[in-house]
Design a protein that fits this description.
Three copies of one chain form a homotrimer.
Chain A: H1 4-11, E1 14-18, H2 24-34, E2 37-40, H3 47-53, E3 56-60, H4 66-82, E4 85-89, H5 97-109, E5 114-117, H6 119-127, H7 148-162, E6 165-168, E7 173-176, E8 181-184, H8 197-210, H9 216-240, H10 245-258, H11 261-267, E9 270-272
Parallel strand pairs in A: 1-2, 1-3, 3-4, 4-5, 5-6
Antiparallel strand pairs in A: 6-7, 7-8, 8-9
Helix pairs in contact in A: 2-8, 2-10, 3-4, 4-5, 6-7, 8-9, 9-10
Organism (chains A, B, C): Candidatus Galacturonatibacter soehngenii
Pfam family, one (chains A, B, C): HK
Catalytic activity (chains A, B, C): 5-(2-hydroxyethyl)-4-methylthiazole + ATP = 4-methyl-5-(2-phosphooxyethyl)-thiazole + ADP + H(+)
């Protein structure tokens, strides 16, 4: 995985983000920090054109509405037609009928390269329902060392069904396609006390993927490890400064901006299953 | 008030926020910092369902539009039906007919547990009009030690009318119901140089209230004192670092994430009137 | 230019921002940091009224949609009728037909006091097309010491056509009307690794302009130099702290909050052409 970040910094992939208005600024800044470049556009009159000039598309349903759902569908289909990398972040799938239905409609009409969600969201996509509590994973769903095999199986099955790489993120992150599985043990529990780490990761996956198209699975693993490792480093800095969660958020983006292939290689805790 | 923050951290109240896109990220991060959990959803097709899975609802009209006003009404009525705590933040009421009219419509159709605004906004709600200058309180309205009795009377009258707890925030904060009044003298003038302190407080009130339902008035007082005291601590840190207002904003959220019932008790300046 | 910042701090100009949801929080915080005051409102039912109570209007098409385009037109015409300062930030003009068409429609129906964009956006406004890559300037367009005369000519021509002051920002910033030209060599390349510097500057120009109406050209030059110089100081601080791009973003707003006419005078690198 030596070249993945270098490729992002050299190619400056432009990522079209149709994403929620809660974490959109963090998403834009993280893409820039990584070496990519963001463009946000959600009007149906322009999304196809914007996707056309981009290297990748990330669709995040965090604050979906009737108007933007139409734009998501248009942009996704265009990206498919042009062979661009597409990432789905099904925020809160399972928490409302609208979110679940929209996630399924997106899966129906668009071929996604990667789907990233927490365990409850991914369960919803596979089973059609789950006990999603808002936008966080339900505690009864949490991936632990004990039940990780079940979650791996889920990821592989959903990958088989959708042909997408599946990233289930949480205490242990799982990145899998139908046949290959990576477990990533980076990150820190305190990261759950800031909003946007998932949204940022989904966009980062699009950037890493767009700059490493022939190596997509490794790109997704690297992006996932990068955000986790950046979170660890940020947590250390937060402690040193005797600071709180807003400092953690700032330092996380800082660390992504400072990350190199070398430093990530040193810090990433990846197991091939 | 010893247990209020501990209760929030133990119960992780999930708060449905229909709020403006200016400060929404700060609102989400502050809720997480406090021990609560945010979910933002504003489409009429899902707001009732989202409110149903939440412990509280905050409605903030800071960037209202025709689409979201409908969602506010639906969510608020649902919250009332289910007996969930509801907070109204009438941002800019008085600054446009749309805002004033919407604020009154919300008051008409929804029973709010708490209404929080600056003095100009609260005057508008009580009198039907005031000299609101944008989203900040008009200088001629400012609550000072000299005119505080008038503002207290206003809070009590509006509480009588609406059955809500009223929080008027500014240099001196007033929290009152029909019969009881608290004055809070925490905070720092520099806090007016960052956006979102009011929006954050309104959401925090929902979280504190949801985790302390049998003790709602004290919860509102604590949340108000918490943001004010966090602002004081953040201001000190800003000076130490010879930094500016963006550092103040970060440190404010930091301090809420570090706040305990013990530290708040030491720092809060609350007078019972 | 001695009094320009002091005037902003004394007059607290209220700026109506119809702007994108990506950088809106930074825009609000920067306006407050500068001594101004922001109000965001984008519903067609209230924008004229909001513009009426404000001292200036900034229109930014970064995440435009059919609903907000109508509001931009209404607000702009009202501002013209009332003689208020108006700023256009044509984010991504040239990147989609919708953006290009909307920018032209705004230019057609509204007289702008100032238009600020990167070189690709400004080329689009003048020529009707350009090679805009997303929301960043195309590398082939970049203003350098070698081609700066061409860019100056472009600015003067567009100013002649529109009667607006033109600010083309990039490695070298150009501020020009039909007859006068200023080059500003403040700023740091790392500023391109955070989102929102352009949006923030456009809003700041409205605040500086509103507080210095008889001196508009100098106000635009000062605002442009202020953001650039704040970026330089922020970059130094970032290096001292061994931090990354998110720290840069925070420090930039910090530095604007600390800026005085005296410190800006010392730091600004302005050449009159």
């Amino acid at each position: 995985m030596k070249q993945i970040i270098t490729n992002v910094r050299n190619k400056t992939p432009l990522i079209h983000c149709i994403t929620n208005y809660v974490t959109v600024n963090d998403v834009a800044n993280l893409l820039l920090a990584s070496g990519g470049s963001p463009i946000m556009a959600d009007d149906s009159l322009e999304v196809e054109e914007i996707t056309s000039i981009c290297n990748g598309l990330t669709i995040n349903i965090g604050t979906l509405n009737t108007r933007t759902i139409e734009s998501m569908l248009l942009a996704g289909k265009k990206a498919n037609k042009l062979g661009k990398i597409t990432v789905l972040d099904p925020v809160g799938a399972g928490a409302s009928k609208l979110r679940t239905k929209t996630a399924f409609q997106l899966l129906d009409e668009i071929d996604f390269s990667v789907i990233r969600g927490n365990i409850s969201e991914i369960k919803t996509l596979y089973q059609g329902s789950a006990s999603t509590k808002g936008v966080d994973a339900n505690i009864s769903d949490m991936v632990t060392e004990e039940n990780v095999s079940k979650a791996i199986e889920l990821a592989k099955q959903l990958s088989k069904q959708t042909k997408a790489i599946i990233a289930i993120t949480g205490a242990i992150d799982i990145v899998a396609n139908e046949n290959q599985v990576y477990l990533i043990r980076n990150g820190h529990p305190m990261m759950s006390k800031i909003t946007g780490t998932g949204c940022m990761l989904s966009a980062l996956i699009a950037a890493y993927g767009a700059a490493n198209e022939t190596n997509l699975l490794e790109a997704v693993v690297s992006a996932t490890a990068c955000v986790g490792y950046a979170g660890e480093l940020a947590y250390k800095k937060m402690l040193e400064l005797k600071a709180g969660t807003s400092t953690l958020r700032m330092c996380l983006i800082d660390e992504v901006s400072l990350m190199t292939d070398e430093s990530l290689k040193e810090g990433m805790k990846v197991e091939i299953r």
